[in-house]
Amino acid sequence: MKKIYKILVLWFLIGTIYYALEGIWHIRSGGYANIVMLPIGGLCGICIGSINQIPKFYNLKIIFQCLISTIIVLSIEFISGCILNIWLQLNIWNYSNYAFNILGQICLPYGLLWFIISPFAIWLEDVLRYKFWREGEYYSLLSIYKDLFTLK
Asked: What's the predicted TM-score (pTM) here?
């Protein structure tokens, strides 16, 4: 029960941060983000954060964690987009005008952006676990990006 509580808290906090950042990202077009981005963003954050919670991935280089994270986010976004945008026709996002898109639901430019954002998501989930439950250890965001760019 305690594990479920932790997951729900992390899901909500990360989702809320993602939802706010999504609104800021779209500030040019009115700063609007659809509320469904909160649970979708939270799910992405929980999944990304879970990578280094799995024992066989403890020592996985950050570049590989970023690749896995990008695949996770693109998969969640594609499935969510097919349900919300194509099946339910909510038209929350449409990447049809972007290069290398798949059904307008995911695209290469945002995949590359997620690769760059992934260290922040990994760090955020780890910091929240540390701050709330003293799990793991604290490290700086700068250190994770340094490890990414030096391929450690």
From this structure: 0.92
